[in-house]
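Example (one chain per record):
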Amino acid sequence: MKQKLDACKLALFEGKRIRKVLYLGEWWFSVIDVVEVLTESSIPKRYWSDLKKKLAGEGATEVYEKIVRLKMAAPDGKMRQTDCADTETMFRILQSIPSPKVEPLKRWLARVGKERIDEIENPELSMERMKQLYEKKGYPKEWIDKRMRGIAVRQDLTDEWQDRGARTSLEYAILTNEIMQGAFELKVDEYKQVKGLQKENLRDHMTDIELILTMLAEATTTKLHRDRDSRGFVPLKKDAKDGGAVAGRTRLDIEQQSGKPVVTKANFKALPEKRRKNTPKKLTEYRQDTGGLVFSCVYCGATVGEISDRTEQTVNAVYNCPKCAANYCDQCSYLDDAEQVQRCLRCDSTVEKLT
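Predicted structure:
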């Protein structure tokens, strides 16, 4: 069965990536990634190889028979075959791995394995779900409408890239940079620097006019692909450059007429503060069922073990920011890789782990 590149996704469990791919109507997970998360082995391939022999020795040959080799994006951006398992088979594999993370990972797999299947059959469900997430984050309704339209335009474009010969995530990134550079004279990373972003999604911090110009650039690129019937990476790259240039000329015209630059430092990083004022939450509470203090994130409201509605990932820790005098979970703060400290998304201060 032919795999679609846009069906290959990355999911996060406790900050570690687990690749998944849509195959035969359900999600299949990279066994190597799951083994690495559970065992923290430096050579997960060796661990999995030994485990397969152990399973065979125990007579669990049905597990190995249900493993399917599917193509997934490797660290170098190339698509390579790797052992994959569906949720049911992965549960059986987990039983053979001694790790305190097994039970949390089972719950995570059950949730992630089920999600999006209904939305694939009815795409409107996916858009409505995403709209609700932005509403919870506090974005203005008018902005959300534009963001939803932009997502649809982007999906249309990436579908064309897949059908016309773009194969790797690196090629997708290059094509996107061509569009952004043509429209805004900035590559994606440069654009994020202007807005003071790190791991955040650039488009989630664009102003209305920036979103509109991005849509114009990508919709124009899609039209050029179809009108020119472009095939292969080089022609697609030329279309991306030309499509971005169309939006770039429009941007220059807007700037000339308004006397102000379109690209600004404006972002939505202050939304957590706004939300905290509008919906105050108790930072700590005593629960008899746990026999101690429970710390809640002031932004998303989640406690350890709950799902953050900001990222839809499990919260594994809650931190306190002395400068903000507020608690933030690991999904509403970020890890500074350079200094190996957790930092506040709002003020960039070092935060202290509470639980």
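Caption: The first helix runs from residue 31 to 39.
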